[in-house]
Amino acid sequence: MKFQTNEILNGKYTTRKTTKSVFLVPFTLLLIMFPLILMRNTDEPSPNMSSVQHMNNKTHTKGCDIFSGSWIPHSEGPYYNNETCKWMIDEQNCMKFGRPDDEYLHWRWKPNECELPLFNATQFLEIVRGKKMVFVGDSVGRNQLQSLLCLLSQVSQPEDVSHKYTTNVIYFKRYFFADYNFTLGNLWSPYFVRSKDADKNGHSYNSIMELYVDEVDEAWSSQVENFDIVIISAGHWFFRPLLFYEKGKLVGCNKCGMENVTDLAHYYGYKMAFRTAFKTLTNLENFKGVTFFRTFSPSHFENGDWNKGGNCVRKKPFSKEEMNLNGYILETYLTQVNEFKVAQEEASKKGLKFLMLNTTEIMLLRPDGHPNNYGHAMVKNVTFYNDCVHWCLPGPVDTWNELLLYMLKVQSHTSYGSKLESVL
């Protein structure tokens, strides 16, 4: 059966409403399950697929577009498991909680024009020796960071040194690989810009928030200059009800349902937040690092919305004949990529390097890679929602770090080599 992208959910992970017979879900679970999608009306016109092909043409590295390809069977097992990596969190530890199938672990991304090498942890650590790398964004970005921790820890065990830098050690993490003098961090900022709750009843899964789209979130901007390599990404939080402010004035909203307030859709907030984030990275006086922008990561809810029994039970990837990048996912993707293209040109004028990890279409083909209901123990009288947003560890998300390593290696031999060598 062909799965349509307009079958995906309406909602967002956060705290749940409970009855007297239902216990509160543990706090750590709430943190990881924050970003479920509040979908746009997919009857809206969709951009043309040629737009994506044009974007892919801009991601060639050494004559090979590593982002155009297909998933092929791979007989070897994963790089790590829940016994060899202590850094994965329960909500993505599908093995620990009894996922019965393992076919999702036996696929590799194969570019059409070349081979994508297997991840080499020693090689990665040698490239970043003496440097600092940080992920900026939401919990899907943190998902990639935890994948990277698992991959690298097979060679060198890091120390969690978060407490030396912040009191908020849940959202702002730092890990130090002493053998390589390498720091890996996470700066939590799901919107990149200043935001606050606007619902008089407090925060809930569908409460409205204010987004100041031209004011950067200082939680990350005040720290990012300390890093040499930045991986920036965001997505699912923008689908919730939002009020958009520019220059301190309300200019519109997404799903606010308010009279005399124009619904600008989530695309507006998404566009403006990326614009502000990219401008910040370009204009920070002391930021001389390399920026990797990872594109939107789709979810795969079927058989209902996220809070109405929606799940993701498939056991193998889609083929390109079964699933096309279209509808709101394509438009969301193009919204951010268009901002990236402008920022990339401006950054180059200042000698800064902006690169794109173009993973949206790659991950759209992997409905089998999510935790679904294998991110927690089965507890009587506790309400859990299936997670079809984040990715199992190990799993397809490890491919993002294969691509990252490939790009780090290739870029060190381009015309930007001397620039990158000074950073990398």
Automatic annotation (TrEMBL):
List, in alphabetical order, the Gene Ontology terms for molecular function in this entry. O-acetyltransferase activity
Q: Does the keyword Transmembrane helix apply?
A: yes
Question: Which ranges does the record mark as transmembrane?
Answer: 21-39
Q: Which GO terms describe its cellular component?
A: Golgi apparatus; membrane
Residues in Trichome birefringence-like C-terminal domain copies: 116-406
Which UniProt keywords are listed?
A: Membrane, Signal-anchor, Transmembrane, Transmembrane helix
The name this protein carries in UniProt is: Pmr5/Cas1p GDSL/SGNH-like acyl-esterase family protein
Q: Source species, please?
A: Medicago truncatula
